[in-house]
Every structure is written in structure tokens, then in C-alpha cells.
Write a structure and sequence with these properties.
By secondary structure, the chain is α/β, with parallel strands linked by helices. Helices cover 34% and strands 24% of the residues. It has one domain: P-loop containing nucleotide triphosphate hydrolases (Rossmann fold).
């Protein structure tokens, strides 16, 4: 069993930083979901993210304190490999009121698979507070087809399913970080 938590001199585990990327087309609500989770806030106003915006959030998963580095990628800036490097989990978001944003998600899945191979990811349909234009079955079918950990419907506005989704991302990221640490040990031995 690998030692995950490193101990500080005071005896308590020091936080481990994990990188979680959030991708998807413009206007689907990536920034709003992070803001809802990390700041418990929501705004109707559109504020386009410029390039990348990183939010850090402390989270304790059992005995392991984590620092979640949430990489919020602008919808128009998703083709930059550096944004994905070293990611341990990904949230790929589409807008449940805009079917084209689900179609576009295949491109985002391809980027994660190319630039951060073997990174677990969740497919999320946002804006579930509005009348849906994308049937739930489509989201489930897409997530299954591309090999996502799961499909979730959520709403940054109504605060539906947001925290459980980030908690699952934290779990996935820690499992991935553990696997990486194990591989490093194997490479050294
Ligand atoms: N009704 C509703 N509106 C939402 C929800 N989430 C986000 N919005 C709105 O959708 C718009 C876009 O949200 P953003 O969070 O800026 O979208 P984004 O994906 O970060 O967009 P880019 O930064 O351009 O890539 C804003 O006007 C938000 O208020 C939601 O759950 N429900
Ligand atoms: Mg944004």
C-alpha cells in the first residue's frame, strides 16, 4: 500500500495538490460551476474567461487534505496542450439547453485523451434549471461511449449536484495521483 499523505513536522498530513481541468464550449457555465463550488456564488452576467483561470480550493478527503487546483479553460482556448499537462482529473461540460455544445464535447474528450492520457473525466450537462433541449439518455450514451467515469446533470444557478461532482473529481484525482506515485516507485526500483 502506498503512503499517500506526507507528514509535516507537526505530524499532520500536508495538503497534496491535484490538478483538475474544466473544459467545454464557451457559455456552457464552466466558470459558473467553479464559482458555485469554491465561492458559493452565482452571477447571471456573462464574463468570458480569458485563456485560463486557476482557482485553488482546500478539500479533505478522509485523512488526506487536498488542494484542488481547478483550471478553468476558456471555450475558445481549448487547443493548448499545456493546459492539460499533468492533469489528474477533468470535468467536461456542455449546456443542456444547447445540443451543439454536446456535439462539440467530442473534441474536448479527444484533447484530454491526447494531452493528458489516462486522465479520468466526468461528462456534465449544466443548466438543469432550464427546460432541457438534450435528453438525459443522450448524455448517458455519450459519456458511456467516450469512457467517462459518469454522466451528471447539474446547475450552477440552482446549486444542484455541484459539490458532489467536485467531490467525485477529487476522489478520481487522488486515485490517479496514487497510481502515478506507484509508477514512480516502480521506475525507481
Ligand atoms: N440558467 C442557468 N444559467 C447558467 C448556469 N450556469 C451558467 N449560466 C449562465 O451562462 C452564462 C455563461 O456562463 P460562464 O460560466 O461564463 O460560461 P463559461 O463556460 O465559463 O464560458 P467561457 O468562459 O466563455 O468559456 C452566464 O450568463 C451564466 O450566468 C446554470 O446552471 N443555469
Ligand atoms: Mg469561463
Amino acid at each position: 500500500m502506498d503512503e499517500i499523505a506526507t507528514m509535516s513536522t507537526s505530524g499532520s498530513p500536508t495538503p497534496r495538490t491535484v490538478k483538475i481541468v474544466v473544459g467545454g464550449e464557451g457559455n456552457v457555465g464552466k466558470t459558473s460551476l467553479i464559482r458555485r463550488y469554491a465561492k458559493a456564488k452565482f452571477s447571471e452576467a456573462r464574463n468570458i474567461t480569458l485563456g485560463i483561470d486557476i482557482t485553488t480550493q482546500e478539500y479533505r478527503l478522509g485523512e488526506q487534505p487536498l488542494k484542488l487546483a481547478l483550471w478553468d479553460i476558456e471555450g475558445q482556448a481549448g487547443n493548448r496542450p499545456n493546459f492539460y499537462l499533468g492533469a489528474q482529473a477533468a470535468l467536461l461540460v456542455f449546456d443542456l439547453t444547447a445540443p451543439h455544445s454536446l456535439e462539440a464535447l467530442q473534441t474536448w474528450v479527444d484533447r484530454v485523451k491526447r494531452y493528458a492520457p489516462d486522465t479520468p473525466f466526468i461528462v456534465a450537462g449544466n443548466k438543469s434549471d432550464l427546460p432541457l433541449a438534450v435528453p438525459t439518455e443522450w448524455g448517458i450514451a455519450f459519456a458511456t461511449y467516450v469512457g467517462a467515469d459518469r454522466f451528471v446533470q447539474l446547475s450552477a444557478k440552482a446549486d444542484t449536484n455541484v459539490t458532489p461532482t467536485f467531490v467525485r473529481l477529487a476522489e478520481l484525482a487522488l486515485i490517479r495521483a496514487q497510481a502515478d506515485a506507484g509508477n514512480d516507485d516502480l521506475a525507481r526500483s
